[in-house]
Design a protein that fits this description.
Length: about 280
C-alpha cells in the first residue's frame, strides 16, 4: 500500500507544479490578452465611439453658434462624417485608443482579478464585486486619462476643420506634446474627474454585472460555462455599463474638448458645474 501512495503523490506533484507555472494563468498573460482583446474590439466599434463623441459635442457647438444641431441621430451623424470627411475618418484617432488600452484595459482587468481572488474568495458578495469593479476602473482610468484626452480631441478634429477653425491635432504624439507644453503634467489630466466617475460607473456595470450575470446563467439557468454563457453575460454587462455611464461620458467629452488659454487653463469650476446642471436640466425636459 505504501509504495502506491508514494507513487500517486509523486505523480501529482509535477502536475501541480505545471499548473502553477503555466504562463496562461499568470498576471502578465492576463494583461497582454486584455489589451489585445480590447484593441481588437475597438477596431470594430471605434466608428460608433467617434460618432457618439460627435453627437455629445454637437449640441454644445450648435448652442455656441446659436444654430440648430445638424445631425439628430447616430446613423445621420455617421453618414455625415463619411460624406463630408471621408470613410477613413471614422477611424481617425485610433492610435490614441491603442495607447489608452495599453494602460486602461490591462490595468483594470488585472486589478479586478487580483482584488477578487485576494479578498473575494470563492463566492464573493455582490457589494464586494461592485467595490472591486469601481476601484479597478477608477485606478485604470486615472492612469489612462492623458490618452483618453487626446482621443476626444482627435475625434473632434475633423469637425473643427469643417467649421473653418485652425488645426489643433495632427497626430497623437503632437497632441501629447502640445497639451504638456500648454498645461504641464496637470494638463494631461484635464477632465479626469468626470472621466474617473464614468469609469466607476462603467466598471460597476461592466465587470460586476458580467460576474453576476455569468453566475446567474450558469448556476440558476443551468448553462455550461462556455462561449454562450460568456456572450450572454457580456451583452448584459455592456447594456448596464452603457446606461449607467452615459451622463458622465457626455460631461467628460465636453470638458476634454474645451479650449484652454495660453497658460493651459480651461474653463472655471463654476462653468463646469453650470454645464453639468444644464445637461441634467435638458435631459429632464
Amino acid at each position: 500500500m505504501s509504495p502506491k501512495k508514494s507513487t500517486v503523490a509523486d505523480s501529482k506533484l509535477p502536475l501541480t507544479e505545471t499548473v502553477e507555472k503555466r504562463f496562461i494563468d499568470s498576471m502578465p498573460c492576463t494583461y497582454i490578452l486584455s489589451v489585445l482583446a480590447a484593441t481588437n474590439a475597438e477596431l470594430v466599434t471605434y466608428p460608433l465611439d467617434l460618432t457618439k463623441t460627435r453627437l455629445q459635442i454637437q449640441g454644445e457647438l450648435a448652442k455656441a453658434q446659436d444654430v440648430q444641431a445638424k445631425y439628430r441621430g447616430m446613423l445621420a451623424t455617421a453618414i455625415g462624417i463619411v460624406k463630408e470627411e471621408g470613410p477613413l475618418k471614422l477611424w481617425y484617432g485610433m492610435s490614441s485608443v491603442i495607447y489608452r488600452h495599453m494602460i486602461y484595459s490591462g490595468v483594470r482587468v488585472c486589478t479586478y482579478d487580483y482584488l477578487r481572488t485576494t479578498f473575494g474568495h470563492d463566492n464573493p458578495a455582490v457589494w464586494k464585486l461592485a467595490l472591486f469593479g469601481v476601484l479597478s476602473g477608477c485606478f485604470a482610468q486615472w492612469l489612462a486619462n492623458p490618452a483618453d484626452l487626446v482621443k476626444v480631441q482627435m475625434q473632434m478634429e475633423g469637425k473643427r476643420r469643417l467649421m473653418g477653425e485652425p488645426p489643433r491635432v495632427l497626430s497623437s504624439h503632437q497632441a501629447f506634446v502640445d497639451i504638456y507644453k500648454r498645461g504641464g503634467i496637470i494638463g494631461l489630466w484635464k477632465g479626469s474627474v468626470p472621466s474617473v466617475q464614468r469609469a466607476a460607473l462603467v466598471n460597476l456595470g461592466d465587470l460586476t454585472a458580467y460576474d453576476m450575470a455569468k453566475r446567474f446563467f450558469i448556476h440558476k439557468m443551468g448553462m455550461e460555462e462556455g462561449p454562450l454563457a460568456h456572450m450572454l453575460a457580456s451583452l448584459v454587462a455592456g447594456f448596464v455599463a452603457a446606461v449607467a455611464a452615459t451622463p458622465a461620458d457626455v460631461i467628460k467629452s465636453r470638458i476634454m474638448n474645451q479650449q484652454t488659454d495660453e497658460k493651459g487653463r480651461q474653463v472655471s469650476i463654476y462653468k463646469n458645474f453650470h454645464m453639468i446642471c444644464q445637461f441634467f436640466k435638458n435631459s429632464l425636459n
